[in-house]
Specification:
about 180 residues; mainly alpha
């Protein structure tokens, strides 16, 4: 191209790339270097100006554009990384919450199963043993044996065990059990 076409936009690219990939400090350095390079090329090969300070003012403006574009891209990049990190943290928190809920549901189901097993298994077995102990107590009383007091005590202990089993099973599975 001839000197009438400004190539200043091409001097913005290195600063912008440096700002995007390397950081603000390196972006400022790249902006200074590209602006100085543009100024040297403009003074040596560019058109002639009426006043000597015009290319320097243009160089200063070139530096401002390069600095603005490189720092702007760096800020955009940092914000993008922040958003990605926030999204990853949110996703991890969501997964942790799902895991906690699944764990709580599993614990609740296991408690319900244990409550049902206690009520339907051990509770029913204790009721049967209680009936047998009550029958034994009745037979011993009919024969007027002294062991009937011990059988009565055994019946009371079994009744207490049935009550404790029901309390434990209701604590594990608070729904009214059939």
């Amino acid at each position: 191209t001839g000197p009438e076409v400004s190539l200043s936009v091409f001097y913005l690219i290195p600063g912008a790339l440096v700002g995007w990939f390397l950081g603000k400090r390196q972006a400022v350095i790249a902006s200074i270097v590209s602006s100085l390079l543009w100024l040297v090329v403009e003074l040596k090969f560019g058109r002639s100006y009426r006043h000597w300070f015009v290319p320097y003012c243009n160089g200063f403006l070139q530096f401002g554009m390069a600095l603005f574009s490189s720092i702007l891209l760096n800020v955009v990049r940092e914000r993008q990384q922040t958003v990605f990190h926030e999204m990853a943290a949110r996703k991890k928190a969501e997964m942790d919450l799902r895991l906690e809920r699944a764990l709580a549901e599993g614990i609740e189901k296991e408690q319900q199963r244990l409550g049902k097993d206690l009520h339907d298994g051990l509770g029913q077995h204790l009721v049967s043993v209680g009936f047998v102990a009550a029958m034994l107590k009745t037979k011993l009383e009919e024969k007027e044996l002294a062991e009937s007091n011990e059988a009565e005590e055994l019946t009371e202990l079994i009744a207490d065990a049935i009550g404790q089993t029901r309390l434990i099973s209701r604590g594990l599975f608070p729904v009214k059990l059939e």
